[in-house]
Specification:
alpha/beta, 60s Ribosomal Protein L30, Chain: A, Alpha/beta knot, four-stranded mixed β-sheet, 11 helices, elongated
Amino acid sequence: MLSSAQVKQLKSLHQKKFRRLENKFILEGYRLIDQALSAKSEIDEIWITKKSKDSPFWGQLLPKIENQNISWSIAPNKIIHQISDSLNDQGIIALASIPTYKKYNQSPKQSIYLDGVSDPGNMGTILRTAAWFGIKSVFRSPDCVDPFNSKVVRSAMGAHFYFSHFEAIIEENLLAELKKAGTKILGSKMKGQSIHTLDMSDSDGWCLILGSESHGISESAGNFITNTITIPGTKGMESLNVSVAGGILLHALTSLEVVTN
């Protein structure tokens, strides 16, 4: 049973300062918890309602939970709903440690730099897409939305557990080093070289900059771009959503590397 002190602690983790202070965050829903279990992430405890315990999904999760010796207990639906940040919670939550990532010290072959991405849904979708395409190094500017914001976590659907590098770093400390190492710094704009004609054969890798929803790529990050690329489309539309554009570009870049390597 959740004590009042535990409820207070869990609710506090919806705020960035408490997540950072305790190095913990909340997982909500079967699929997200399943991803954490599959990645052998550090989960402190799981709480589930009686109704949700009857779900077939719980039957699939339980062997993994028991195999990893994770504590779990029944909690009232009212309490779970009170803690959950989702309007339609699934009656199951978990307390997990924020994963430990490697610090940047050498140039990865494939990476993303998120430059001022502020919308939690966009951030989460980009992370989920990056994980799908096997990108292990995701960096972000300090002014991005907190990646452990509950909306980001839900949208990312477990992507957080599959990165090697995942840190906030100012552009000068990352992009300058990558450029010096021979990495192509790619920036997407409306007018640029078609992503479909980009030649990667003379490069030791690439870093894709994805800019903010309102202002695009910042001037400071833009100074490091070696190749301005674009996604060909029908004239008339102003632009693509940053997460949609990111998905298209990642598909093209990862496909391109298969051809040129």
